[in-house]
Amino acid sequence: MRTALVTGSAGFIGYFTSKRLLEAGFRVIGLDAMTDYYDVSLKERRHAMLLQNPNFTAINARIEEPDMLKNLMRDEQVDVVIHLAAQAGVRYSIEDPKSYVQANLLGAYELLEAARAHKPQHLLMASTSSVYGANTQMPYKETDKVDTQMSFYAATKKANEAMAHSYAHLYDIPTTMFRFFTVYGPWGRPDMAPIRFAKAIYADEPIDIYNHGKMKRDFTYVEDLVEGILRLIEAVPVRPASEDDIEEGDSLSAVAPFRQVNIGNADPVPLMDFIAAMEAAIGVEAKKNFMDIQPGDVPATWADITLLKRLTGYAPKTDVMAGAAKFVDWYKEHYNQG
Fold it and tell me: Which residue in the list 15, 38, 132, 153 is annotated as catalytic?
C-alpha cells in the first residue's frame, strides 16, 4: 500500500482527492490547518467523512510551520505528495495579500524543503488557470508564456511553479504542476459562485453577475478534476537527455523532471449558460444584478487538454447541465431546501 500526503485535505478539492485516493487503495495522510477563511464546520464534516476509512489519518497543522512537513514526510514514509493547501480566492488576495505570502509562498517553500530531504516518487502541486492572466490566445496551452498575472493569488501560484522548477532541477524531484479551471460541485466553498447563486435563488434575492454576464469559464466538475489528478500520479516526469527528446506540445522542462498540465473541461461556457443550468436544476429563474467586472478577474478561460489526454488517456466529460444538477441535488440536501 502506497502512502499519499494530501495537503489541504479538508478543502473542497482536497476532500474529493483524498476520497478518490482511498478508493484507489492508498493510505492517505490528510493535512489541514482548518483556517477560518470560510465555515470551519464544513471542513470538519469533510474530514469526518474521510475518517470513516481506517486508511485515512488527519493532521491539523499549518504547512508554513518550520520543518513540520519535513518531519511528517520522514515519519510517514510518503510515496506521493499532492499539494492542495493554499490561501484560495482571487478577490480575497486584494484584501489580505499577506495571508497568501504565508500559505502559498512560505508553505510551498516548506514543502519543497521536505521533498528535498525525503524525495517522493512524485510531487504534484496545484497551480491554477489564473496564471495565464491577461493572455488572450485561447485555448490556453501549457507552453504559452505566462507573465501577466492579474491578481496576487495568481502571482503566488506562478511563483510556486518557478520555485518547484528550481527544486526539480537542483534535486531531481519529479514534479507536476496541475493547472485547474473553475472547479465546481458538491461540498464546494461557500464563497464560490455556485453556492452564492443557489443561496440567493432560494432566498428570492438577486445574484450578482459581473462584467454584465459577458464572461466565459471552463467549468470543470470536481470529480473530473480529481480523476485527472489521480491519473497524473503515474505520469511521472523524467529529465530529458536533450531538448530533442521533448515531444511537440509537451511542457516538460529541458533541464528538470518537471512539467505543467492543464486539467479542464476544454469547453468555455458563457456564465449566463451556467446560471441557466442552475435555474433549470432548481426550477426557479434567478433575479439578476448585472455589475462591472471586478479587479483581478479575466473575461474568459479555456483549457487545451491535449497534453493531459496524451499523458493519461483521460479527458473530463461532465457538461454543465449534468454538473449543475448534481450540485443542486447536494445543495438541497445539505442546506435543507425543499
Answer: 153
Who's near 91: CB < 8 A, 6+ residues apart? Answer: 151, 294, 295, 296
Angle at 188 between CA 208 and CA 258, to 5 degrees: 110
CA-wise closest residue to 75 among 107, 106, 40, 118: 118
Instruction: State the burial class of residue 77 (Cβ atoms within 10 Å of its Cβ: 0-12, 13-18, 19+).
Output: exposed
Counting other chains too, the contacts that 162-167 makes at CB distance below 8 Å and 24 or more residues apart are 163/105, 163/108, 163/109, 163/112, 164/108, 164/112, 164/123, 164/125, 164/258, 165/253, 165/256, 165/258, 167/112, 167/115, 167/116
Question: How far is residue 107 CA from its own chain's centroid?
Answer: 16
The answer on pLDDT for 338 being more than 60 is: no
CA separation for the pair 61, 40 (Å, rounded): 14
**Residues 226-281: tens digit of each pLDDT:** 999 999 999 999 999 999 999 999 999 999 999 999 999 999 999 999 999 999 99
Q: What is the pLDDT of residues 60-106, one digit of tens each?
A: 999 999 999 999 999 999 999 999 999 888 888 888 999 999 999 99
* Cα–Cα dist 215/193, whole Å: 13
Sign, CA dihedral 184-185-189-193, equals positive
SS3 37: coil
- For the chain, list the domains and their CATH numbers: 3-182+222-264+304-317 (3.40.50.720)
Comparison of pLDDT for 294 and 171, the residue scoring more: 171
How many residues would you count in the chain? Answer: 338
The secondary structure of 96-160, three-state, reads CHHHHHHHHHHHHHHHHHHHHHCCCCEEEEEEEHHHHCCCCCCCECCCCCCCCCCCHHHHHHHHH
Is the pLDDT reported for residue 337 higher than 80? Answer: no
DSSP annotation of 294: P
284 C-beta neighbours (distance < 10 Å), count: 12
153 is catalytic: yes
Q: How far apart are CA 13 and CA 226, in angstroms?
A: 7
